[in-house]
Each structure stands twice: as structure tokens, then as C-alpha cells.
């Protein structure tokens, strides 16, 4: 659910970009829609609002949410101020490489790798499994950053934005799905769930 909420700013960004470039009047307020720079403005505002709501509801944001929000604010602001799409093209690669650096550093500066901090509440896996998963995520983030950079600078703007909004989401979903066989057997089953299963078996 949280991931779907975080996807809203990107969806809004893509929708605004796809519109014909024009000024829309909302009461006394004139808002520009259409085009990459207007879309960047919507992405900036929508991200601040979305993560602000998450902060109020959750009482906190995790470090990856803060980095994502910081990346959006920084790169969208530069894109709008300098009217240069170069900054927006660099956002995804740099944010992904920052994530890779955090996952890499966590092995040396923490008693747990980053992936265990994120998923340890739901999975009770041995240390070697956590380190293997952590290494996979490092490789994934580095690769995803490179792929985003190549797509941004070699393909059309439309293809780049489609990949930025939908491609990254699909690739991450497939990557996570690919790890399921490795971690499924370590999943923590809640007591209530276990009791329910036992009752079902007894009834049967």
C-alpha cells in the first residue's frame, strides 16, 4: 500500500507531461500543464505532499524515503530553475547509486546489512542469506542506475519517461519476485495466522 502511495507523484508527473502544453485556470490560479518542466513542478509538489502525509501517518520516514524525497526536491528544483532536463535525467541514476552505497556500507558500519533492517521484521533468515540478498540489491541498484542513464541519453524523451515511471517499477517487481524462492521458507508467520491455520486443519 505504501509503495502504491509513493507511486502517485510519478503517475501525476507522467500524466501532466502527456498533456498538450497550455495554461489551465483554476479560479484565480493559472497553472501550466504539459511538457517536461511543468511536469517536474507537479512531481516536486506532489512528492512533498505525499511524503508529508506519510510522515504524519507513520510518524517517520525511513532513510530511503528521505533520500527519494531529497532527490526529487534537489533535481526537480534544478530542472525548473535552469530549464534543463539534464538534472532530471541524472536523478534516477544518482539516487539508485546512493542506495547501492548505503547497502554496501551497511555491511561494515552496522551489525546488520541494510536489507535485514528493511525486511527483518517479516523474515527470519540466517546471516549468510541476508548478506547474499544485500549483495544482490547492491548489484541491482548499480545496474538500475546504469540502465536509467543509458535510457535517458540514448532513447527518445517519451521512451525515457515511460521507462522512468513504469519500467523501474516493473523491473523492481520482477527482481523482488525472483528472490521469493530464496526467502519464502524464512517468512515469519504471525501467531494468529498459525492458530487460524491449525483450526482449519483440525476442522478438515
Automatic annotation (TrEMBL):
Pfam families in alphabetical order: IspA (PF04279)
Family, per entry: Belongs to the YciB family.
Function: Plays a role in cell envelope biogenesis, maintenance of cell envelope integrity and membrane homeostasis.
Membrane topology field: Multi-pass membrane protein
Protein name: Inner membrane-spanning protein YciB
Organism: OM182 bacterium MED-G28
Subcellular location: Cell inner membrane
InterPro entries hit by this protein: YciB
Segments passing through the bilayer: 34-57, 64-88, 94-110, 136-155, 161-178
Sorted UniProt keywords: Cell inner membrane, Cell membrane, Membrane, Transmembrane, Transmembrane helix
One Gene Ontology cellular component: plasma membrane
Gene: yciB
Principal cellular location given in the protein's record: membrane
Amino acid at each position: 500500500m505504501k509503495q502504491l502511495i509513493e507511486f502517485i507523484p510519478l503517475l501525476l508527473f507522467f500524466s501532466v507531461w502527456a498533456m498538450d502544453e497550455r495554461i489551465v485556470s483554476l479560479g484565480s490560479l493559472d497553472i501550466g500543464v504539459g511538457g517536461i518542466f511543468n511536469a517536474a513542478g507537479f512531481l516536486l509538489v506532489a512528492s512533498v505532499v505525499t511524503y508529508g502525509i506519510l510522515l504524519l501517518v507513520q510518524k517517520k520516514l525511513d532513510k530511503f524515503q528521505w533520500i527519494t524525497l531529497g532527490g526529487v526536491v534537489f533535481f526537480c528544483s534544478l530542472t525548473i530553475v535552469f530549464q534543463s532536463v539534464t538534472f532530471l535525467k541524472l536523478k534516477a541514476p544518482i539516487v539508485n547509486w546512493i542506495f547501492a552505497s548505503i547497502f554496501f556500507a551497511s555491511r561494515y558500519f552496522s551489525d546488520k546489512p541494510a536489507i535485514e533492517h528493511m525486511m527483518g521484521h517479516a523474515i527470519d533468515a540466517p546471516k549468510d542469506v541476508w548478506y547474499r540478498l544485500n549483495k544482490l540489491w547492491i548489484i541491482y541498484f548499480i545496474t538500475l542506475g546504469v540502465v536509467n542513464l543509458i535510457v535517458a541519453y540514448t532513447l527518445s524523451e517519451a521512451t525515457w519517461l515511460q521507462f522512468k515511471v513504469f519500467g523501474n517499477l516493473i523491473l523492481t517487481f520482477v527482481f523482488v519476485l525472483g528472490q521469493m524462492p530464496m526467502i519464502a521458507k524464512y517468512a515469519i508467520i504471525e501467531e494468529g495466522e498459525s492458530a487460524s491455520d491449525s483450526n482449519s486443519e483440525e476442522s478438515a
